[in-house]
């Protein structure tokens, strides 16, 4: 398998890296992380660079990019912090669901507005009693003429409160059928009357924020439904491989930054009259860290290449997601050790990587769920 980037892809990578270096400075990131501020300035730069057009067809203003282009962007945004990848990916993944399942009217209305930055998108599946078992959701949408009335609660919704956000909301629309079958997908502007969004206090991922959302007799027109009634579950599944492989690219980017920062520190910091990187214990730790990050990158690129070739590599994507997130959490923990007491101080970035990394083996399908998927592709029957 050849993982060489084409000249265009190298240019894309270099341009995104340069733009992120210019705007997502350490001071910018620290201020946004500490104060829980959404990175609107960086998002606008992505709009100006045309990054939101990448995966969409030309007829809606896009550039017909490939999965490989997406993972290149994913890794570059992730280098500055996993939350940046999150902001980009949330909008892209949900807008792709419109492309796959929306009406022509929805596509021509929403996709150009995603590309020009007028709107952004988030996803709400999880509920207090429906996490890994998302099909167990209870939030109800009941039809009333050409409207739906929504009642219920969602939990852990990333960036739901960002300006001009449209929540992609999965609701139960038929309680009489087995549970994953009676679910539909709706687009709900975040400021619709009856929607109450509350920011939760989290360990990390503080730029985008994690929210709980309450729906109290929320009325929404039927033309805000995406896909067929009761076919929300297949809508959600249809984007899962792309979401997980691009997310894995974000893990690789952020993990590489962890290693780079720990390495730079190990070369600089002297104890017992020599750089701590000259102690074999630290040097071997760094060698192991870089090896695991490289392995994560290879797994991610293997999965992305198969997808670019038209395959549906469920096992490879789950392996990239599993290994990438566990590596990110592991190297961030080791980075803390290498930087000693300084790592624990808020003015050093390692603590942010450590806090952000800890979420990644839980979100977008936990590590246990990835192992279940991998085991099932090996002929086992795990639930
Ligand atoms: C920072 C953050 C951001 C998030 N953003 C979003 C978002 O934008 N939108 C959204 O809808 N959700 C979001 N989530 C929710 C996330 O997807 C869920 O937390 C995740 O699906 C796990 O659900 P849970 O937390 O209820 O854990 P549970 O499902 O209760 O799992 C608890 C433990 O049991 C294990 N477990 C559960 N079932 C099995 C099984 N069958 N086999 C083996 N082990 C199992 C899990 O792996 C885990 O270790 C976010 C969560 C966090 C922390």
Describe this structure in words.
- Helix content is 51%, strand content 16%.
- With 383 residues, the protein is α+β, with helices and mostly antiparallel strands.
- It has three domains: 7-119, Acyl-CoA dehydrogenase/oxidase, N-terminal domain (Butyryl-Coa Dehydrogenase, subunit A, domain 1), CATH 1.10.540; 122-230, Butyryl-CoA Dehydrogenase, subunit A, domain 2, CATH 2.40.110; 236-377, Butyryl-CoA Dehydrogenase, subunit A, domain 3 (Up-down Bundle).
- Helix 1 (7-23) runs parallel beside helix 4 (67-80), helix 4 packs antiparallel against helix 5 (82-101) and helix 8 packs antiparallel against helix 9 (280-308).
- The chain is globular.
- 47% of the residues are buried.
- Flavin-adenine dinucleotide is lined by residues 122-126, 131-132, 156-158, 202, 205, 210, 359, 362-363, 366, 368-369, 372, 383.
Q: Could you please say which CATH topology of the largest domain applies here?
A: Butyryl-CoA Dehydrogenase, subunit A, domain 3
Sheet with the most strands, sense and barrel status: 4 strands, mixed
Class of the largest domain in CATH? Mainly Alpha
Count the E strands: 10
Q: Could you write a compact summary of the structure shown?
A:
The protein has 383 residues and is an alpha+beta fold. Helix content is 51%, strand content 16%. Helix 1 runs parallel beside helix 4 (67-80), helix 8 (240-268) packs antiparallel against helix 9 (280-308) and helix 10 runs antiparallel to helix 11.
């Amino acid at each position: 398998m050849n993982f060489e980037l084409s000249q265009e892809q190298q240019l894309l990578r270099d341009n995104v890296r340069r733009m992120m270096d210019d705007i997502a400075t350490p001071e910018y990131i620290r201020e946004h992380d500490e104060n829980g501020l959404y990175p609107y300035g960086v998002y606008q730069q992505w709009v100006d660079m045309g990054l939101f057009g990448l995966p969409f067809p030309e007829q809606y203003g896009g550039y017909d990019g490939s999965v490989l282009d997406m993972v290149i962007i994913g890794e570059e945004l992730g280098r500055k912090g996993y939350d940046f990848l999150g902001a980009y990916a949330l909008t892209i993944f949900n807008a792709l669901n419109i492309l796959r399942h929306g009406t022509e009217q929805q596509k021509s209305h929403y996709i150009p507005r995603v590309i020009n930055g007028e709107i952004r998108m988030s996803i709400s599946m999880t509920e207090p009693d429906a996490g890994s078992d998302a099909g167990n959701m209870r939030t109800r949408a009941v039809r009333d003429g050409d409207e739906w009335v929504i009642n219920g609660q969602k939990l852990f919704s990333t960036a739901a409160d960002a300006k001009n956000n449209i929540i992609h909301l999965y609701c139960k629309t038929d309680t009489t059928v087995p549970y994953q079958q009676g679910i539909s997908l709706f687009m709900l502007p975040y400021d619709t009357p009856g929607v109450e969004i509350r920011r939760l206090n989290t360990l990390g991922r503080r730029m985008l924020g994690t929210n709980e959302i309450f729906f109290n007799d929320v009325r929404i027109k039927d033309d805000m439904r995406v896909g067929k009634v009761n076919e929300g579950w297949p809508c959600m599944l249809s984007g899962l491989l792309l979401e997980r492989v691009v997310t894995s690219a974000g893990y690789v980017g952020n993990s590489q930054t962890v290693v780079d920062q720990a390495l730079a520190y190990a070369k600089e910091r002297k104890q017992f009259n020599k750089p701590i990187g000259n102690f074999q214990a630290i040097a071997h730790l760094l060698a192991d860290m870089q090896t695991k990050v490289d392995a994560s990158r290879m797994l991610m690129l293997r999965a992305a290449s198969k997808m670019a070739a038209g395959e549906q590599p469920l096992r490879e994507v789950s392996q990239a997601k599993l290994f990438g997130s566990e590596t990110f959490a592991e190297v961030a923990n080791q980075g803390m050790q290498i930087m000693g007491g300084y790592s624990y101080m808020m003015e050093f970035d390692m603590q942010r990587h450590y806090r952000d990394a800890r979420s990644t083996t839980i979100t977008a399908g936990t590590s246990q769920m990835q192992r279940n998927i991998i085991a099932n592709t090996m002929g086992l029957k795990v639930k």
